[in-house]
């Protein structure tokens, strides 16, 4: 299982329901997303981390997570 698939499995997230990320995203795009008001995909608290998962046939998708859930999923993956 790759990192993206592993994270989605741990988060019990359906890839087609995640917001699409731009194909040409860079660090500035990610920082802008992180500073917007999004909720954590796992718990619903304010997200402090924005990740882009390349999900192959589903394209690139945003994963917005709070600090606690990001660390939890990162360690488990």
Description:
It is a single chain. The protein has helices spanning 3-11, 27-35, 67-76, and strands at residues 49-54, 60-65. The chain is built from 3 helices and 2 strands. The protein has a two-stranded antiparallel sheet with strand order 1-2. The chain has one domain. The termini are close together. The protein is globular and about 30 Å long. By secondary structure, it is an alpha+beta fold. The longest helix has 10 residues, at 67-76.
Annotation keywords:
single chain, 77 residues, alpha+beta, two-stranded antiparallel ribbon, 36% helix, 16% strand
Please provide the ordered H/E string of secondary-structure elements. HHEEH
Task: State the strand order across the main sheet.
Answer: 1-2
- How many domains is the backbone divided into? 1
Count of alpha/pi helices: 3
**Overall number of strands:** 2
- Binned, the helix content reads 25-40%
Largest sheet: 2 strands, antiparallel
**What does the overall shape look like?**
globular
Describe this structure in a few short sentences.
With about 80 residues, the chain is an alpha+beta fold.
Topology:
Layout: H1 3-11, H2 27-35, E1 49-54, E2 60-65, H3 67-76
Antiparallel strand pairs: 1-2
């Amino acid at each position: 299982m790759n990192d993206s698939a592993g994270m989605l499995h741990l988060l019990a997230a359906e890839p087609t329901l995640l917001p699409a990320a731009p194909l040409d995203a860079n660090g500035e795009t990610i920082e802008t997303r992180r500073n917007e008001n999004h909720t954590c995909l796992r718990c619903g608290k304010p997200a402090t981390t924005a990740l882009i998962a390349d999900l192959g046939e589903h394209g690139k998708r945003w994963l917005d997570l709070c600090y606690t859930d990001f660390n939890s999923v990162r360690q488990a993956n």
